[in-house]
Design brief:
894 residues, alpha+beta, Jelly Rolls, Immunoglobulin-like, eight-stranded parallel beta sheet, 46 strands, 18% helix, disordered C terminus
């Protein structure tokens, strides 16, 4: 249980309010770290002789060692086996009259003691608790702040009660259930380390003057064309007279609105309450379905000696429901998300920390990661119960970018000791802080009690109701209701039905296609309602990421190498890993023998493996996204690898997209075309228009034999309403039977390639989306560049980007455009026969200069180089202005 000793907790550390006149100082400089054996000493004055080294705060013991160059990710080290100390010095005078000085610690992992000028001011045993300590009387000119993070390993060995009613292989030590800490880093199968230890969140000193915001609750709702904002706040006066009036103000680019607030005095505090109505309000939408409109909120507080401003953050107005009717039962029917009355196919990923070592991502890296979510057409991210709550900057960006959030409380798989009074109090405090920070956010859609607790119980043959109990069935849902959020509470993921893991009921974790090696048809047969996790594959990264895994001898890193296997996820205790799963589908869908292929051509094995997982993901989401599907969404496990290697992430540990990411990006785009194999029913072309405006476009279907010769083509102008999904029978478009799926098999296939294209209804017919299907198998035979007729034309733009146009005579499968120092906007894409595709290359770093690149493709032998060359006859690309040089294929292949 967290203790504040004699120093009281000050204002709620969860509030987003920023008060005019308050001075906030980040204590981020001058930190040092040191490790000692457990309980070697408990007095900071005795530590001068230990080996201190520089550290960053926010940060962890692992990031301090990494930055010092004495440890790197992938090297085994038990960070729970030692005491870790962090210290810094800072200048700060004591609190002046009418001033309160508060030491804010937003998160320390895990069992910690905090000392200020040699005096202990805090004991905490929760990584997730936020602390605000009134330390004004302890400060003097030069101050010493020391944090001790006690070794967790000896504490885990202590015998504790109550005994667990079930055990889980998720973590190595079941006693972790007694400690409020992150399981990532302590889960041997998929996240073996490093464990988070240290001050992983901000440490700051706040000088508060005049008034303090003790509590602030803003709740936005929509009624017809109006937005309504209810306000409840509590201000405590530090000096001078109490406020005499207050207003709430909302502002956006379209105007500003104000409303008065009622004041009620309570001693040295005053409660504020009121409502503001915004006529003709601009609604907040997930980015796939509209614009995420936000309003700036602030309180204007009037006092006899002047007024002050309280910045209350940004507010969005939207309605949120979870079914088509009042009778919708989430535990039977799953999550059917409706935003502003519109059904939203919710797709996205399970989120992992951007900086899994230091747990302190830079603002730029956090924005890049969420930009990648948005750019992939994902509109929902889930923060799982195995991880840690994200910082305010994360949620600010989700509000801004229109990305919905599924927030788990940090519980997973284990039997938590809720009957222990101290544990109960700690969990209640934690949940109130989390909900206090998140309940007002338009991006918050789902609050979930835990990850896999009910599934864990049921799969052990026990009564699934044991997994809900008081914690997830009573305490947490009551606190969610008390917070007045409109987000849905889900007790566990998965849950619903007689057994919580049946995919056709409630919320499921779907691994039929994936871990359970079911055929692709199972994605439809399983009748998934909503997948809180799905499609976990060992996704192979590109060569630069692989080379980082064994920098001294990257050529030795083949898939049986221990360093490679350390990056492949597995279920603890199993005789297989997720690379075996990938190999199963490689043989099933590509018709190759994985073991033999990697023995004779390791690079080809990796190339096909990269393509495979993305194609499978796209195929499954195509099944789920079609209009006739009972599925309302799915979340891929997971977005980004937390260790180097072929992990579950569709983005590697460096933040670079893998091939699978681009397949998902095309499949999940707000405006997309895709096809499904309906067996004897032929092939259907599906089009989704998630956008808030009607779509008028040309749907074109082309059939080819020998991946080159056209044997059929049809096109139709289509008009689709906003937020609509429709489908067309390919043979109905062609107006003749061609056995498009090659299901009747009266003879050899009449076509081996079907291309469905969605083109803009304007001059030039800009390609909006395209997908391909192979009725008789994929084109895996490698051909020389002149045989394919593959070529590229490039233009260097004024901004430093490079526009590359790729064209081919025969079908090019899985084309990749590579250039050192540049990142491609699309990757592993198809180019139909006699077709052309455009790609934008953007510099990875400032100052990168384009010096040429190369093309590869699954059915290309070797690669084709291209470089920048002036071309007097080259014509500008439509819509692009540039005086830069042009580039063409240099005519060589290697």
């Amino acid at each position: 249980m967290t203790q504040s000793l004699e120093f009281r907790q000050s204002a709620s550390p969860g509030t987003r309010a920023r008060v005019e006149g308050h001075e906030v100082r980040q204590l981020s400089d001058g930190w040092q770290a040191a490790a000692t054996p457990p309980d070697l000493c408990s007095d900071p004055a005795e530590l001068d002789e230990v080996g201190w080294f520089p550290a960053h705060v926010p940060g962890t013991a692992a990031s301090a060692l990494r930055d010092a160059g004495v440890w790197r990710q992938g090297v085994a080290r038990d960070f729970d086996a030692e005491d870790w100390w962090f210290r810094t010095s800072f200048d700060a005078p004591p609190a002046a009259h009418g001033e309160e000085v508060v030491l804010c610690l937003d998160g320390i992992a895990t069992v910690a003691e905090v000392y200020l000028n040699g005096q202990r001011v805090l004991e905490s045993d929760s990584m997730f608790a936020r602390h605000a300590l009134d330390v004004g009387a302890l400060l003097h000119g030069e101050n010493q702040l020391t944090i001790r993070c006690r070794a967790l390993a000896p504490l885990l060995r202590e015998r504790r009660r109550p005994r667990a009613r079930w055990r889980s292989r998720l973590v190595a030590d079941g006693n972790l259930r007694f400690f409020r800490t992150m399981l990532l880093g302590r889960a041997p199968g998929f996240a073996p380390g490093p464990a988070a230890v240290g001050p992983w969140r901000e440490v700051r000193l706040e000088r508060r003057r005049r008034v303090v915001v003790e509590g602030l609750a803003l709740r936005a709702s929509v009624c017809g064309e109006e937005g309504r904002l209810t306000v409840r706040a509590c201000l405590r006066t530090l000096e001078g007279a109490q406020p005499v009036a207050a207003e709430i103000e909302l502002a956006s680019s379209s105007g500003a609105w104000r409303a008065p607030l009622a004041l009620t005095e309570r001693g040295d505090a005053v409660d504020l309450q009121g409502e503001l109505v915004v006529p003709g309000v601009s609604l907040w939408w997930p980015h796939t379905h509209g614009e995420p409109a936000l309003y700036e909120a602030r309180l204007i507080v009037s006092r006899p000696n002047g007024s002050l401003i309280v910045d209350a953050g940004r507010i969005g107005f939207r309605s949120l429901t979870f079914g088509r009717s009042q009778d919708h039962d989430v535990e039977v029917d799953g999550i059917d998300l409706h935003v502003n009355g519109v059904s939203v196919f919710a797709r996205g990923c399970v989120w992992t920390p951007v900086d899994a070592v230091g747990m302190a991502p830079s603002p730029a890296s956090l924005r890049t990661a969420l930009d990648q979510v948005r750019d992939a057409g994902m509109n929902l991210v889930r923060i799982p119960g195995t991880s840690a709550y994200e910082e305010e900057a994360f949620h600010d960006l989700c509000d801004e970018l229109g990305v919905l959030v599924w927030q788990d409380f940090m519980f997973a798989n284990l039997d938590y000791p809720i009957s222990d009074d101290a544990f109960y109090a700690a969990v209640e405090h934690e949940a109130r802080q989390v909900l206090g920070r998140l309940a007002c956010r338009p991006s918050l859609a789902v609050v979930c009690g835990n990850s896999e607790v009910e599934q864990q119980v049921a799969m052990l043959g026990l009564d699934p109701s044991l997994g809900r109990g008081e914690l997830f069935g009573e305490l947490l849902p009551a606190l969610v209701r008390e917070s007045d959020t409109d987000a849905l509470y889900v007790p566990s993921a998965p849950c619903g039905g007689d057994l919580p893991f049946r995919p056709d009921r409630g919320v499921s974790n779907y691994y039929g296609v994936g871990g359970y090696r079911r055929p692709l048809e199972d994605a439809r047969r399983a009748e998934v309602r909503f997948a809180a996790e799905c499609l976990a594959f060992s996704n192979v990264p590109d060569e630069p990421a692989i080379e980082e895994m064994l920098p001294n001898a990257p050529g030795d890193l083949v898939v049986h190498h221990p360093r490679w296997k350390a990056g492949v996820p597995r279920d603890s205790g199993s005789g297989w890993d997720f690379e075996d799963v990938r190999d199963h589908y490689l043989e099933l869908l590509f018709g190759v023998r994985p073991a033999e292929l990697r023995r004779v051509d390791h690079e080809r094995y990796l190339e096909l493996s990269r393509v495979l997982t993305g194609e499978v993901m796209g195929e499954v989401f195509g099944e789920w996204r079609r209009a006739g599907s009972p599925c309302s969404g799915g979340l891929v496990l997971w977005l980004r690898d937390i260790v180097p290697g072929a992990g579950w992430g569709v983005i590697d540990h460096r933040g670079e997209p893998k091939v699978a990411y681009h397949h998902l990006r095309r499949a999940l785009a707000p405006v997309a075309v895709w096809t499904t194999d309906e067996g004897l029913g032929g092939v259907h072309a599906h089009v989704a228009n998630d956008r808030p405006t009607p779509l008028t476009a040309r749907l074109r279907v082309a059939l080819y034999r020998d991946f080159e010769h056209p044997v059929g083509e049809a096109e139709e102008m289509i008009e689709m309403a906003p937020h609509d999904v429709r489908h067309w029978d390919v043979e109905a478009l062609l107006r003749r039977f061609v056995d498009a799926a090659w299901a009747y098999r009266f003879g050899p296939p009449a076509q081996d390639l079907i291309v469905a294209s969605l083109e803009a209804d304007r001059e030039g017919g800009e390609l909006l989306s395209q997908s391909v299907r192979f009725p008789a198998g994929r084109p895996l035979a490698s051909e020389p560049g002149d045989g394919l007729g593959l070529a590229a034309t490039a233009r260097v733009l004024d901004e430093g980007d490079v526009h590359v146009s790729v064209r081919t005579a025969r079908f090019a499968y899985g084309v990749r455009v590579c250039a050192p120092g540049f990142r491609a906007s699309d990757d592993a894409f198809p180019v139909e026969p006699a077709g052309e595709r455009s790609v934008l290359l953007s510099p990875r770093d400032d100052g990168a200069v384009f010096a040429g690149g190369w093309l590869t493709a699954v059915n290309l032998r070797g690669r084709i180089k291209f470089s920048a060359q002036e071309q007097a006859h080259s014509s500008p690309v439509a819509g692009v202005q540039s005086d830069a040089v042009h580039a063409t294929l240099d005519g060589t292949s290697s």
